[in-house]
Amino acid sequence: MMNFLKKYGLPYGLKLSVKKNLTKRQSSRYADARSILMFFTSEGNQKIAMIKGLQNKMEKEGKSVKCLYLVLRDDDKPDVHMDDGMERLVPDDFSLFGEVEKTGIKKMINEEFDYLIHADMESNIYTDLIMSKCKAKCRIGRYFEGHENQYDMMVSIPDDKKINFLLDQLYLYTTAL
User: Fold this and answer.
1) Is residue 5 predicted with pLDDT exceeding 80?
2) CATH number of the domain that 14 lies in?
3) What's the distance, CA 35 to chain centroid?
């Protein structure tokens, strides 16, 4: 019954979130940026390791980088300690209308990060909800048709490419700002 209700409640909540988020959107130079939130859907250890690599690279450049990831299936959970320092989100952390119910995550998405980098090859209702609720000043991710209002910069990636190519392109274009 709950899945049926969420099926219709979450899209409604998404529309409300897009309307309610009045965060002033602006892009600062990457050199001047201090805080970055990397958001992605877990697909196992390999993706977590690649994201951690990019996180470490940005931290060496003096950025404060936090990571938030979504686990949709139990099979995609990372091994123990792979996600140290990262915040985990699951579909059960969302209310009927898409409000995040986990206090730590709610606080994180209300922080005014300089950049929010969405590092996924695909979009889903949960990633759309986070993108629409986040108070980041500049939101960056892959180009998803029909999602233009959720991003400030979208990178077009061919469908035959893999996540490592997306991460390289996101870093390239973000640092060019």
Assistant:
1) no
2) 3.90.1640
3) 14
